[in-house]
């Protein structure tokens, strides 16, 4: 069963930068619901529920029900959040309206596990994360909240590629023309210098 989070939202009447600033002066976050060939709906919401969700893994692949005061609900994905350049507070959010049968594009968070068992890290390597999320295409109900990357067999100077990620049924990466890198275990500069010195002394 898909885990759906409910956000309480209210309709707002006016679009535009001035109207959005007025909403923020009230301590709320302006947003818009669009997609699924329906008329966009302007909304506003309490920032506390949004900030709480942003701090959890899988924010952009989790489904949300936006509940209006009259009980009407819109099933959505979070598509884009704009943040304040200084405070990082959310300033605006775009929601993508979804249904069960329509494939959607979403960024799924990557989680790295078993750091303590990773041979490359035990040798002094550093985890270099190239992609914190993977863009995929899937029906909304098939979207995983995250992909787990097991580091227990990743050696020093080895990389994890998209081909190493087990995709659930019905989910495929949106980039298919190359086997792109997700992360690598790289040697820090000090370790590289030591290795180079050892190699030179052996010549």
TrEMBL record:
Pfam families: Ribosomal_L25p (PF01386), Ribosomal_TL5_C (PF14693). Belongs to the bacterial ribosomal protein bL25 family. CTC subfamily. The lineage of its organism: Bacteria, Pseudomonadati, Pseudomonadota, Alphaproteobacteria, Rhodospirillales. It comes from Haematospirillum jordaniae. InterPro entries: Rbsml_bL25/Gln-tRNA_synth_N, Ribosomal_bL25/Gln-tRNA_synth, Ribosomal_bL25_b-dom, Ribosomal_bL25_C, Ribosomal_bL25_long, Ribosomal_L25_dom, Ribosomal_uL5_bac-type. This is one of the proteins that binds to the 5S RNA in the ribosome where it forms part of the central protuberance. Keywords: Ribonucleoprotein, Ribosomal protein, RNA-binding, rRNA-binding. The keyword Nuclease does not apply. Coiled coil: none annotated. GO terms for biological process: translation. Part of the 50S ribosomal subunit; part of the 5S rRNA/L5/L18/L25 subcomplex. Contacts the 5S rRNA. Binds to the 5S rRNA independently of L5 and L18. The keyword Ribosomal protein applies. Gene3D superfamilies: Ribosomal protein L25, beta domain, Ribosomal Protein L25, Chain P. This is Large ribosomal subunit protein bL25. Residues 104-188 form the Large ribosomal subunit protein bL25 beta domain. Residues 8-95 form the Large ribosomal subunit protein bL25 L25 domain. GO terms for molecular function: 5S rRNA binding; structural constituent of ribosome. One of its GO terms (cellular component) is cytosolic large ribosomal subunit.
């Amino acid at each position: 069963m898909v885990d759906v989070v409910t956000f309480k939202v209210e309709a707002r009447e006016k679009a535009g930068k001035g109207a959005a600033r007025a909403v923020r002066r009230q301590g709320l976050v302006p947003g818009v619901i669009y997609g699924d060939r329906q008329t966009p709906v302007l909304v506003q919401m309490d920032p506390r529920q949004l900030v709480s969700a942003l701090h959890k893994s899988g924010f952009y692949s989790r489904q949300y029900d936006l509940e209006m005061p009259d009980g009407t609900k819109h099933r959505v994905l979070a598509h884009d959040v704009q943040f304040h350049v200084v405070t990082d507070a959310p300033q605006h959010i775009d929601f993508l309206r979804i249904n069960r049968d329509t494939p959607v594009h979403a960024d799924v968070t990557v989680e790295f596990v078993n750091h303590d068992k990773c041979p490359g890290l035990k040798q002094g390597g550093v985890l270099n994360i190239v992609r914190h999320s993977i863009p995929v295409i899937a029906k909304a109900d098939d979207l995983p909240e995250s992909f787990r990357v097991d580091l227990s067999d990743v050696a020093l100077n080895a990389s994890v590629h998209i081909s190493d990620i087990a995709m659930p049924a019905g989910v495929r990466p949106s980039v298919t023309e190359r086997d792109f890198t997700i992360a690598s275990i790289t040697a820090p500069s000090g370790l590289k210098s030591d290795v180079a010195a050892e190699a030179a002394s052996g010549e």
